[in-house]
Design brief:
- By secondary structure, the protein is α+β, with helices and mostly antiparallel strands.
- The protein has two domains: 2-89, no CATH class; 106-345, no CATH class.
- It is built from seven helices and 13 strands.
- The strands form two sheets. Strands 1, 2, 3, 4, 5, 6, 10, 11, 12 and 13 form a ten-stranded antiparallel beta sheet that branches.
- Helix 1 packs across helix 7 (362-381).
């Protein structure tokens, strides 16, 4: 622990020194140019006497010059703060991972990254995330009518849909390979040229792994609790040629909460038509208690095989841990566990929180390390 604190203190001092020196240099440089400019104005005056108007002009010019300096320093702060947060997380987590006993049958190798995503199962180009975006919005009345409210007030919903991928773990041993990444699903609405509204409606972790000896499926198999959607037995789809996530992104924007037809501005002139789920060969079945599964009839055999293999996982996920806002997806040959922070997966809804370098000091570094250590241990318990 002392080693981590010492390393953090050294880097924190370096970051603060860099910020103060850079800010002072920018201020000094900008002020020097400004004073030189005003000096030239003063000398170029044909009058030998300094007029009151000239003095006022010079003073106002100096005052207004401070505003660009503040803006530059603000951008400088954001850049340096991003460097601090990224480096601090890496320092803490890389050292803690060496100390934590993972309690696995075989030792796992754990790699952490916040900057460069190495995940093969889930990435920014994944159509699965776009599918989930609409699945969650249009089967939740609160989110759905919030979206409609934006549209009715002149906003246009931006397509393709957006999401953010943050902290990432690659956890592997000789036989298994897990990928865990922090996911933020968002909606963006635009009304004016530069006026946008961003709504984040899912914050959580996505844990995934490839399955061996399982046939690849083109349709998602979704397992969820009765509390995830307003009506778990009646999820509706938009009419599409098929329900293959590998198709174009327009074709996977395909779930709606009820039969209100939206204007074409909502999906950039993409025609929406609500049809019954049976017309797309999908079924919803009750697995156990209040746990449901959505699957394509063509994948019925795969569904039953997966159900037998992951019966204990499903029970632990929904019944023992009581994850009501989280869900499981099988797609292609990969299983995804989407863990919503609303299910209290971690102690707070800010994974591996690191304060800004201006707020960080020697007193709060120790609690910061313990908080991240506790969160990390709880997350790794999911793999035990």
């Amino acid at each position: 622990m002392e080693k981590i604190i010492k390393e953090l203190k050294n880097y924190l001092n370096l970051i603060k020194l860099s910020f103060y020196f850079s800010s002072f240099f920018v201020f000094l440089l900008y002020l020097s140019f400004d004073l030189l400019f005003n000096f030239l104005i003063f000398n170029s005056s044909k009058s030998n006497n300094i007029s009151h108007i000239m003095i006022i002009t010079i003073v106002i010019n100096i005052l207004f010059s401070i505003i660009p300096i503040i803006i530059i320093i603000f951008f400088l702060y954001n850049i340096i703060n991003s460097l601090w947060i990224s480096k601090a997380k890496n320092i803490i987590i890389s050292n803690i991972l060496k100390e934590i006993n993972l309690n696995f049958e075989k030792n796992f190798q754990v790699k952490y990254s916040i900057d460069y995503k190495k995940s093969n199962n889930l990435n920014p180009s994944s159509n699965l995330l776009s599918f989930l975006n609409d699945l969650l919005i249009f089967n939740n009345p609160v989110l759905y009518y919030k979206a409609l409210n934006y549209i009715n007030n002149g906003f246009v919903r931006l397509v393709p849909l957006s999401f953010r991928l943050e902290d990432e773990f690659i956890i592997r041993n000789e036989n298994l390979h897990f990928e865990m990444i922090e996911v933020f699903l968002t909606n963006k609405y635009k009304r004016y040229k530069n006026y946008k509204k961003i709504e984040t409606f899912f914050k959580g972790l996505a844990i995934s792994t490839k399955l061996k000896n399982i046939k690849k499926i083109n349709n998602p198999i979704l397992i969820y609790s009765n509390l995830l959607f307003s009506n778990p037995k009646e999820i509706k789809f938009l009419k599409t040629k098929s329900f293959n996530i590998n198709e174009s992104k327009n074709d996977i924007i395909n779930l709606l909460y009820n039969e209100i037809k939206l204007t074409n501005v909502f999906y950039n002139a993409y025609t929406l038509e609500i049809i019954d789920i049976s017309e797309l060969n999908f079924e919803i079945t009750n697995l156990l208690h209040n746990i449901y599964c959505l699957y394509n009839i063509e994948d019925k055999e795969t569904f039953f095989n997966l159900k037998l293999i992951f019966q204990k996982t499903i029970e632990k996920f929904f019944i023992i841990n009581n994850y009501t806002k989280s869900f499981i997806i099988f797609y292609e040959d990969i299983i995804y566990l989407f863990l919503n922070y609303e299910d209290n997966i971690i102690s707070n809804k800010n994974l591996f929180y690191v304060p800004s370098f201006l707020k960080a000091n020697s007193k709060n570094l120790n609690p910061l390390i313990f908080n991240i250590k506790n969160q990390l241990e709880k997350i790794l318990e999911l793999f035990s």
